[in-house]
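Input record (Table S2, row 202):
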Amino acid sequence: MICLDNSVLINHGKVRACYQHPKEPSLVIKVPVGEEKETNYANIKELKGYQTLMREHVDLFCISHCYGFVSTNYGRGLVCDCIRDDDGAISKTIWDVIVFQDDCDVKYVQKVADEFCNFLMSRNIWIFDLNLKNIALRLRYDGTYQMFVIDLKGRYDDNELIPFSSYIKYFATKKLERRCQQLIERIPFYRNKRAELQYESL
Ligand SMILES: Nc1ncnc2c1ncn2[C@@H]1O[C@H](COP(=O)(O)OP(=O)(O)O)[C@@H](O)[C@H]1O
Ligand SMILES: [Mg+2]
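Output record (adenosine-5'-diphosphate complex):
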């Protein structure tokens, strides 16, 4: 059994806590927080969502890959790639960069998001949950960012819709277009509200 504690905690999401793997720096372990069914089901949803996505796109680079379950002192955990910057630091989410980082080139983050969205659209990659907290910005040595989707549980909820939407590709494209638009608009929106958001997070 793998023993997790606060010294390896990366962050909490709504339903899971994400820890560094204590022995393997390239991996994270996600464990449910709370007793709700939704919480316990999140890891299964993510693994299934991930597997479906990989059946459609074998060589996806822009996601955190998932490897299956391990037992931990906090229950069954899902093992996935840990997204790290070139200097080894754990990459921040878009949310953390635009809300909590003082020096942030908002226009540049928007440009990276725009290019990322164009990539998803051009390859018909149906990832619709583009929440700012679910996308990591990997900082490269040259100062550029690369985006990675780190939470694919939403993909599971979309599975039923996907065969239909892919069949009528038009609807999936429109949905992805809307979600991409939202992502790009939210970047300056939350940046402008950051004092309030920082206060709420205390
Ligand atoms: N693969 C990863 N690499 C680095 N950090 C991660 C990774 N996955 C999750 N995190 C961090 O943990 C947080 C919560 O993880 P997430 O999977 O989104 O949980 P939830 O299902 O509760 O939303 C993320 O917002 C991010 O800060
Ligand atoms: Mg999340």
